[in-house]
Design goal:
Layout (H helix, E strand, L loop, with lengths): L3 E3 L27 H9 L10 E7 L2 E9 L3 E8 L9 E2 L1 E2 L5 E7 L6 E8 L6 E3 L15 E2 L10 H10 L7 E5 L6 E2 L5 E2 L2 H15 L3 E4 L3 E2 L12 E5 L6 H13 L3 E6 L4 E2 L19 H4 E2 L4 E2 L6 H17 L4 E4 L2 H5 L21 H17 L4 E4 L21 E3 L1 H11 L3 H4 L4 H4 L10 E5 L11 H4 L4 H17 L3 E5 L24 H19 L13 E8 L4 E7 L6 E7 L5 E8 L4 E7 L15 E3 L1 E2 L7 E7 L3 E8 L1
Parallel strand pairs: 1-2, 11-14, 11-25, 14-17, 17-21, 21-22, 22-23, 23-24, 24-25
Antiparallel strand pairs: 2-3, 3-7, 4-5, 4-8, 6-7, 8-9, 8-10, 12-13, 15-16, 18-20, 19-20, 26-27, 27-28, 28-34, 29-33, 30-31, 30-34, 32-33
Helix pairs in contact: 3-4, 6-8, 13-14
């Protein structure tokens, strides 16, 4: 939404007979054509951010701001702001036919002006002051006014944008560092404040590059009134949070990351929105954005409203929001939150608390249609990005194209892997042999979807403890188990995601009001954990066998999935080249296995690439020789085998060398 210089003939669709140079009345100035109104009401206008909201414009040398808002059941709508003394009667808007849109042009109002919409319901009830649903900038919470702003910015990420299709592809390495902007790092000497977008640009970029991650994923940056919601209770679907700076400051953060080869994924929440007075709820005195029936329109779990996906204008609003972040902020992907709550009408509801669909089922047909259309529009316009579904259910074909009957997402979080793995790793090793299937079960479904393996923020909050806190044993065993867990994730097919703090071996669970525990790096054992994550990222990016076939069953092969008594698993990862083969073997007990024999798919030499028990990473230092020669042996159904030292609570990577 760059600043618009509007003259006769440029989007003044209601004034065909005016001559250049004519002084226009406010009632004659509009950015909305009849086609815009038609497409919006039909549910097919997906660039609404070019039309609705507050635009600073110049019309025939007359500077001001064009305001427009959707409020079909309002009797009166006016603008209140610091330019008219917050007088509800001072700056009325006029309706545009039967579209439900109200608009006006106010001369002299420009960038930086504060405003809200003063809305009087048609059918009685009190008037409300509402923030602009299309505002691109807002006051810092707890203040709630919208701010007139432009989105002019001189981008410097042309090289990234030209090649990002290859960076975001399913056959490319994708290792995501998940970040909450407000608590990644604080400034101790300045009231322990959060870093600004521009401060984060340099410090976060340097750190992510040092650690070897390919992408960052931000918990929702969209404006939200309650800091403790982490952004998942969104009020501003077109505005980055002003807590950390201006829209241009956030653009700078994305631009800086891109210029240093790091992709940016944003969490996006079309599943629900908060009930705050200034927000979308009861916007014009009616249930405009939310479904009117609380059995379909209210989440008791989150005390929030549910969007009415059956309403055409709501679909236009939400898809416009998704495209807005891809367009104006150059982001490389959207991770869609709480998809399960959208798919099922009975999500977290008891009998009698939900309404079946027209066929008597529990599937939310309107939400399904919305998600499919969302993904179709995203990939039609931005084929080089990814949409990622956070779905905790077994809904089929989430990451398959819509023309095949899928939902159309590019990737899906593997919540089953996360749950099974953390439950297994939390067990005392003496009991793990009875739960071996928790490690092996995933491969039954691993290629049904295009998966991301998440060790996310949700696993280290609300009393769940930190990742290392879930591990059994004494401190040495806890650290070894954590290294093993991380190595197991990187060995499995699927893209990787790790929440901030886990790479430090942080003991306490995440606290959004603080910072992650950077001082832990003063202790060698925690610096070792950080070094291990660096090593895993380095190996992952260097070895195509670990990423090229993440979504292809041809890239995975079990060596031995049945060594339950030993709590050992071994498998092969293969790249697209027939010569590109890695062997991964993990020991989930604190016992060392000497001369452990493993069948391998070919003869020649096998080189140990990485060993989580290496002393370099805080282990006991039981490494294998640099090269092991395979010998003829019929082990694990193979013609060749190698004998290795399999250290305690460790995972090892070997590479075939002919």
């Amino acid at each position: 939404m760059a600043k618009k210089e509007v003259s006769y003939g440029s989007n003044l669709g209601q004034n065909p007979d005016l001559k250049p140079g004519t002084t226009l009345k406010a009632s004659q100035i509009t950015l909305l054509t009849e086609d815009d109104l038609y497409l919006f009401n039909e549910g097919n206008h997906f660039r609404l951010y070019h039309k609705l909201g507050a635009y600073p414009i110049t019309v025939n040398e007359q500077k001001g701001t064009h305001f427009s808002v959707w409020a079909p059941d309002a009797r009166e709508v006016s603008i209140v702001g610091n330019f008219n003394g917050w007088d509800g009667a001072g700056s009325p808007l006029r309706p545009r036919g039967q579209s439900g849109i109200w608009e006006t042009f106010i001369p002299g109002v420009g960038k930086g002006a504060l405003y809200k919409y003063h809305i009087t319901p048609r059918y009685g009830g009190r008037s409300r002051e509402k923030a602009d649903p299309f505002a691109v900038y807002s006051e810092i919470a707890p203040k709630t006014a919208s701010i007139v702003w432009d989105l002019e910015y001189d981008w410097g990420d042309g090289e990234w944008m030209a090649q990002r299709g290859s960076r975001n592809a399913l056959d490319s390495p994708i290792a995501i560092y998940e970040v909450h902007l407000g608590s990644w790092k604080r400034v101790p000497g300045e009231g322990y404040r959060s870093l600004s977008y521009r401060e984060l640009a340099v410090q976060l970029t340097d750190y992510v590059r040092q650690m070897g991650f390919t992408h960052v994923e931000f918990l929702p940056v969209m404006e939200h009134p309650f800091f403790g919601s982490w952004g998942y209770q969104t009020t501003g679907y077109f505005a980055p949070s002003s807590r950390y700076g201006t829209p241009q400051d956030f653009m700078y953060l994305v631009d800086y990351l891109h210029q240093h080869g790091i992709g940016v994924i944003l969490d996006w929440v079309p599943s629900h929105f908060p009930t705050d007075e200034h927000g979308l709820g009861l916007f014009d005195g009616t249930h405009l954005y939310e479904h009117a029936d609380p059995r379909k329109g209210f989440h008791h779990d989150w005390t929030s409203y549910i969007f009415n996906y059956g309403r055409a204008e709501v679909r236009s609003f939400l898809i416009s929001s998704a495209l807005f972040w891809l367009d104006k902020y150059h982001v490389d992907g959207l991770r869609v939150d709480a998809v399960a709550s959208m798919l099922y009408l009975d999500y977290s509801r008891k009998e009698g608390e939900w309404i079946p669909n027209k066929y008597g089922g529990r599937e939310n047909l309107e939400a399904i249609a919305f998600l499919r259309r969302l993904n179709e529009e995203v990939y039609a316009n931005y084929p080089d990005v990814q949409t990622i579904a956070e779905d905790s259910t077994a809904w089929p074909m989430v990451s398959r194209p819509t023309y095949l009957g899928g939902l159309g997402f590019g990737l899906k979080w593997d919540m089953g892997w996360m749950h099974d793995t953390l439950e297994y790793m939390s067990r005392d090793p003496i009991h793990r042999k009875y739960h071996h299937n928790a490690l092996t079960f995933r491969m039954i479904y691993a290629f049904n979807e295009n998966f991301v393996l998440p060790l996310s923020h949700d696993e280290v909050v609300h009393g769940k403890g930190s990742l290392i806190g879930k591990m059994p044993g004494d401190d040495w065993q806890k650290l070894a188990n954590l290294r093993l867990l991380l190595a197991y994730m990187y060995g499995q097919p699927g893209k990787k995601l790790l929440f901030m703090g886990a790479e430090l071996g942080q003991w306490r669970e995440w606290d959004h009001d603080g910072s992650i525990d950077w001082h832990f790096l003063d202790y060698r054992r925690h610096a070792h954990i950080q070094g291990w994550v660096k090593a895993l990222n380095r190996l992952y990016r260097a070895e195509p066998a670990l990423y090229e076939s993440d979504c292809d069953p041809a890239g995975f092969e079990w060596i031995d999935a049945s060594a339950a008594l030993q709590s050992v698993i071994s498998f092969v990862r293969k790249g697209k080249s027939t010569d590109d083969i890695l062997l991964v073997v993990g020991n989930f007990t604190p016992v060392t296995y000497q001369n452990y024999q493993l069948g391998v798919p070919r003869g020649g030499f096998w080189k140990e690439l990485l060993n989580s028990d290496s002393s370099e990473y805080g282990g006991s230092g039981q490494d294998n020789p640099k090269s092991l020669r395979a010998h003829r042996s019929s082990v694990h159904g193979r013609s060749y085998a190698i004998r290795i030292t399999l250290p305690p609570l460790a995972m090892l990577y070997f590479k075939s060398r002919k």
